[in-house]
Amino acid sequence: MIVTRFAPSPNGPLHLGHAYSAVKAHDLARAAGGRFLLRIEDIDGARSRAELADEFRRDLEWLGLEWEEVPAQSTRLDSYEAAARDLMARGLLYRCTCTRAEIEALEPTIGPEGLIYPGTCKGKAFDPSRPSALRLNIEAALAETGPLEWEDERAGVVTADPRQFGDVVLVRKDAPASYHLAATLDDAADGVTLVTRGADLVFASHIHRLLQALLGLPVPRWHHHALLVEADGRKLAKSRRSGERGYGLAEMREAGEDGRIVAEKLRLDQIPHGISLSRYPPDGT
Ligand code: GLU
Ligand code: ZN
């Protein structure tokens, strides 16, 4: 049974890129007689807005999709804490009190997803008067798991290379888990077998595969799809307010556009509103 999911964070309105992703995940499940899940990723309490989750449901309905909703992340904090405790007890996590400014001052290497943490706090006593995050000791983790692979439906079998991102944060200073820990645990708990999302999150799959091995979780397959890009070649993104500049689903819905037609066009890779599709994998379409 194929189980896919759409897992939006309620921190800004959805845009056409989200519609593309949701339609893709929905259709991959439906074509195989499987299940399509909606999971609201509201781990980021300070930035999450409950009314946006309602808006997301209206957006999916407008696109003509049917889904099963699973519990939101804010109801699953115990499972994140238990996993973090387990990894901590095995010596795989360490406390980091560094601020972003302190890390930047060390002029760290820039990896595929931003700064690579230089390991300042690794193996050191931490100052309990400062807020701390928990980071994964990647070397210690890989020593436990050995080499790993993961399978992308479109790119084939990939060697997991979590080292390139450094010691990632699994428990944030300001949230009970990071995206990596929460999403990996949730996908396993929800029985997701085909993690479907944009190619901008390929990097995360290297880390998630490692977490699955460490936590003894089932290993899904992945389907990373091409991204929608604006005329300047940059991807649609909440950080660029793409959902409020004419590419927003709520905007289109309120302007009276027919969401089912939008979804049909996306299925045919006919992307409306002057948007185009990036290539993924790079030698693919
Ligand atoms: N919540 C993430 C986002 O909105 C998506 C995570 C995922 O699909 O793994 O970007
Ligand atoms: Zn640190």
Explain the layout of strands and helices:
Elements lengths: L2 E4 L9 H16 L3 E4 L11 H13 L5 E2 L7 H13 L3 E4 L3 H6 L4 E2 L2 E2 L17 E4 L1 H8 L3 E4 L3 E4 L9 E3 L7 H11 L4 E5 L3 H14 L5 E5 L2 E2 L19 H6 L4 H9 L8 E2 L8
Helix pairs in contact: 6-7
The structure holds glutamic acid (GLU) and zinc ion.
The site of glutamic acid has 7 residues, from loops.
Low-confidence stretches are none
> Strand percentage, roughly?
15-25%
What coarse outline follows from CA principal-axis ratios? globular
Give the averaged pLDDT, no decimals. Answer: 94
Largest sheet: 3 strands, parallel
Major β-sheet strand ordering: 1-2-3
Which CATH class of the largest domain applies here? Answer: Alpha Beta
Order of helices and strands: EHEHEHEHEEEHEEEHEHEEHHE
Task: Describe what you observe in this structure.
The strands form six sheets. The chain has a three-stranded parallel β-sheet with strand order 1-2-3. The mean pLDDT is 94. It has 285 residues and is α/β, with parallel strands linked by helices. It has nine helices and 14 strands. The chain has two domains: 3-75 and 187-278, HUPs (Rossmann fold, 3-Layer(aba) Sandwich); 77-171, Glutamyl-tRNA Synthetase, domain 3, CATH 3.90.800.
